[in-house]
Amino acid sequence: MMNIRSMMISCYAAFISFIGWLMSGVKPRENQVTLLVSFQENAAALIHTYQQQANMTMKLTVLYTKHASAIEKDEPHLSFRYFHEKNPLHLIQCLYTMFKSKVVVTDNYFLMTSVLRKRPSTTCIQVWHANGALKKFGLEDASNSERSPRDIERFKRVYASFDYIVTGSDHMREIFKTSFGVNDERFLPTGVPLTDVYYEQHQPSLKLNNVPKGKKILLYTPTYRDFAMDGLVLPFSKEQLQTDLNGDYILLVKLHPAVKHLAKAETDGEWIFDVSDQPLYPLLCACDVLVTDYSSIVFEYALLEKPVLFFTYDLDTYREKRGLVDRYEDIIPGKACVTQDILLQELLHLNGSTNKERIKTFAEEWNQYSKGQSSQLLLSFIEQQLLLHKKRPASH
């Protein structure tokens, strides 16, 4: 039986379809490209490379959600516009912008891309916001068992709108195939744009006020838990940092954008600090050890070849409610630590050389096609698409 939330989303989807039908006669501009952005890293990499290319014919419009608001800049050749998916006026404006575009690049599940499914004049490219996956998503999400057949069909309509899917490895391609229900014809092995910065020579600057100098940095990046939005379990207590770790470390906590205003880190301004508003890449470069769980951050962090620990205090619960990839414990480059004590022992006995080799192998496997030129390769492909009169139809 359809619940109220499902009915509301169905009405929302019907509204999108109706507006899409009304706009079906809108013709795209020959050089217009739109980025739909919910996480800024991929879009930022594409924009950075785009601005360095004098011979690009495309004109970029960037439509971004609240979580990606930091991406907006005052640039003469770029158009930025914030949108809220639940705002009808924003939705209509976004749909019109998409219909005026020859190419739409999206980084997430946006219901509005479903109107591009049978539109021959607009190509939709999915550049997923992660270069690997430890948790299940899409058609593989464990919570789908509680959804109606109408919900699943709606998901499939969105996934069918992806004419191309960017991938950084064969591993991720196989995950996309089952998660989106697509075949091999749709994949672009250009590598993932957000990884380009890891191949640059300069180190990014990180400004952290009131954080003591001379301490080793533990960076904790817990994943999004939709079943515990306001819950936060820290990997180490203040007492452990002071006593068991001999005062050598401080703990920085970066929360997922979706929960940083709901879950608050118990910071003390001395040993534990909330850095959720700081950009991710400089934090990953600055830290000595990453502590994470089921987050995809580890796939890009591994390119730095630095130690990582996995704090999986809710392993069984997460596996049941959300779903983890098969053989999760074998895939991660480290031990799944289900308690603080186990995690503490892993940190105390961290073997740098052994850990580094395992992380290096992990990085090579999951960043198979991401070699520092991913943004350039994808933009070149988009330029080619602008020359075509009709997109290659997506498989259904």
From TrEMBL:
It comes from the Bacteria. One of its GO terms (molecular function) is CDP-glycerol glycerophosphotransferase activity. One of its GO terms (cellular component) is plasma membrane. The keyword Membrane applies. Belongs to the CDP-glycerol glycerophosphotransferase family. Its main location: membrane. One of its GO terms (biological process) is teichoic acid biosynthetic process. This is Teichoic acid glycerol-phosphate primase. InterPro entries: Glycerophosphate_synth, TagF_C, TagF_N, Teichoic_Acid_Biosynth. It is a peripheral membrane protein. The keyword Cell membrane applies. SUPFAM superfamilies: UDP-Glycosyltransferase/glycogen phosphorylase. It is found in: Cell membrane. Keywords: Cell membrane, Membrane, Teichoic acid biosynthesis, Transferase. It comes from Bacillus safensis. Its EC number is 2.7.8.44.
